[in-house]
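Narrative of activities, Objective 1.

The group set out to show that a structural description can be obtained from nothing but a protein's sequence at a throughput compatible with the screening campaign. Below is one input-output pair from the validation batch, recorded exactly as produced.
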Amino acid sequence: MFNKTLRCTEDTYISIADNSNHSAATKLKTDNWPSDQKNPTRYASVLQFAIPNELRFKKINSVKLSVTIKTDIGSGFGAVYYRAYTASSSIADLSYSNYANRGSVSTPILDKQTVSLNPGESYTKERDITEIFTNNVINNLFTVIVCVPNPNIDDLYILSNENSSSYPLLTIEYEDVLPVPPTLLYPVDVYVDERELTFRWSFNTLTLSRQKGYLLQWRKAEDSNWYILSSETTERSTYTAHANTFPTGQIEWRLRTIDEIDQVSDFSASLFIVKGKPSLPVITSIKNDALTVIEWTASDQVGYEAEIKKNGEVIYKSNKSTKETILKPNLFLQDGDYELRLRTINSYSLWSSFASRIFTIKTSKPNKPNVLVSVNGDLVNITAEFDTSAAYLYRMDPEETILVAKLTNKKYIDTAIRCNVHSKYFVRAYSGGFTDSNQVTALALTDGFIVSDKNDIVRVDLSEERFIPFTEELSKEFDLVEYSGRIDPVVEDGEHKRQVITRKPFVNEEQYTKLRRMFNNSTEVLYRDNRGIKLWCKITRLNRTNAILDMGYNIDISFTKVFYKEGVDVNE
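Output recorded for this entry:
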């Protein structure tokens, strides 16, 4: 801690009565100036101190003003009012007529202390006025107005700087301090768009110093390097960045300030998030292959939508939530020209525009494969002949075409063919390009129905009736919505449907045991019957009653269709 005592450099008093200048007076007249009064009652003493420039860069801990109050005829006082006065130049010519135009007056500090004085006595009054000193030093000048209520005319006065002793003194206690980091005001933890952005901060100091300059830097949250956005020598505490300066995503920024004696503060840091339409993804490669592979780069991707068109028609579409920037379409592309359209979505649910690229597939074709099938009841044995490293088995029926398997050897048993319906098989040989075999027809048969999972198969074809009772229940989600101006409601379909098939056959103990195990398991089962119905489903009801001399059971079993993806993808 250090102390510096300053002698008053200029003093005077203003008087309502004579409106004169009194800067040479040895006695500074003073009187009352209550808080609720706009002007002093009669007199007001005005003291001015020159503050050394070096103190502007120190932390001021306290400021104390010492004045000597004297009476010639005997009196006393019970209060002293202290007001900061923002004069920016010497008060040597100050008078009542011009004081209001030379500066403003602060709210007073009131010091109540009863003091009695005999004729010729004086009293030195010291008061801490730090609260009105701070922020009121103008051009290195501090000016203070002191008023002492005077019950008798011209009874009390303050000894001026013209005296050889007892003149006004200002004692300042201070210390050396390091610069203080600035306060970041905007943008702080907010979302912004891609328009121009104004950064705002406040210069902080424990001294009377001002900002001389600043350094402003930024980076993406995941980056390690900082980039200079602006570095200026200025007292301005704002900076406006041009539109589209920052990429979308989370942006960190930091700022440090420089004071008038080139002391540099530590950085203050914050962040903001730029919400904006992402830039176009850049398609980097499309593999010339029937099973093409597409790669691209994108900023802040959390998903994508891709389309492949041929002759203007969309033949493939993929929409996926992922950060991966690679797509392996689940289809074979024949030789020819195609258009790829790709767009990405960022973490703020904003889509980019579509990037488009024309590409050509031109491949060498392998030798034509061959396929043989033989039907064994409800199963089909397939034998394939091909000379490529990979081949694919397809099954077609009136309801669907399914890629059944990627063949690792040349024999395969199909346990999921639709029964009592003609199906066709073909094999696709692949080695960059592809060649298909001829199609071969197969017909699997059943007289009842078949239930299977990965462990068991149950063939049911008996009933106490001449046929196995069959019930199918179909339901569909929809709403009947009534609109003003329409007499009848309007049907608005929902997206959910339900299909339940119920059968009532006779089964033996072994069949029932397998069905019960399937019922208790949580996995899907496959239902096929003599009507050509094929369902991936869950057994949702299973009741039994003993029958035929207790040799088995009449059961009531229900199958509810569930979502199941049969077959494989070409890229598996």
